[in-house]
């Protein structure tokens, strides 16, 4: 019988032990993500399949990604325990900002949970002329904009990684989480471009 043996609940014999050990089935261990504009890499269905094949996989997911289409993503560096995470209550992407652990009282110590080193990508970070509404993708204005993003990363305790002016994509690394954003007045303070939302 070996690996092909099925229990009454439809799990392979080894998986029945997981149910007993954790007190819940594999689906109950999966991170929760209900809004269709948010996503994970690997996808939640893939996580469930890997947990079935390799019990304990979800305790150590390497470089786990959570993102929101059109807003950005976070890649949590190294291994992350994703079991039973309610991702929508923990991570919020808004235009040009990301917040992890919106409620500081629920934030674990640095290095635990999702409060760990990560690479953040924010979208809609574009250099746009206030008068003509033209998007700049190269030249001195873009270089100054990039310098502003580098300084903004430092001011927020982050490390600048890259800026793609064509895609409007800003990447930076953090050691832990709070709120990271680019506000309109950040650009104004540098005498720079307009907010992409005002187009």
Features:
alpha+beta, three-stranded antiparallel beta sheet, structural constituent of nuclear pore, RNA binding, disordered C terminus, c-terminal autoproteolytic domain of nucleoporin nup98, disordered N terminus, Nucleoporin_S59-like, 11 strands, 6 helices, six-stranded antiparallel beta sheet, 27% strand, 199 residues
Low-confidence stretches: 1-23, 194-199
Output the CATH topology.
Answer: c-terminal autoproteolytic domain of nucleoporin nup98
Would you state the CATH class? Alpha Beta
Distance between the termini: 65 Å
Number of strands: 11
CATH-defined architecture: 2-Layer Sandwich
Instruction: Assign the CATH superfamily.
Output: Peptidase S59, nucleoporin
- Strand coverage percent: 25-35%
Structural category is: alpha+beta
Number of domains: 1
Largest sheet: number of strands, sense, barrel closure: 6 strands, antiparallel
Organism: Punica granatum (Pomegranate)
Domain Peptidase S59: 35-177
GO cellular component, one term: nuclear pore cytoplasmic filaments
Protein name: Peptidase S59 domain-containing protein
């Amino acid at each position: 019988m070996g690996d092909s043996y099925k229990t009454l609940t439809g799990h392979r014999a080894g998986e029945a032990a997981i149910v007993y050990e954790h007190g819940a089935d594999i689906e109950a261990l999966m991170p929760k993500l209900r809004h269709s504009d948010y996503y994970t890499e690997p996808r939640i269905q893939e996580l469930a399949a890997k947990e079935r094949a390799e019990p304990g996989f979800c305790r150590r997911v390497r470089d786990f990604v959570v993102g929101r289409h059109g807003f950005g993503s976070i890649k949590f560096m190294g291994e992350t325990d994703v079991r039973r995470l309610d991702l929508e209550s923990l991570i919020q992407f808004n235009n040009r900002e990301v917040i992890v652990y919106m409620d500081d009282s629920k934030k674990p110590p640095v290095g635990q949970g999702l409060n760990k080193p990560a690479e953040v990508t924010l979208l809609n970070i574009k250099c746009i002329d206030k008068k003509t509404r033209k998007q700049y993708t190269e030249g001195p204005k873009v270089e100054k904009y990039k310098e502003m993003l580098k300084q903004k990363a430092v001011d927020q305790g982050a490390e600048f990684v890259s800026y793609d002016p064509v895609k409007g994509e800003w990447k930076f690394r953090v050691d832990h989480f709070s709120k990271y954003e680019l506000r309109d007045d950040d650009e104004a303070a540098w005498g720079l471009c307009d907010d992409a939302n005002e187009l």
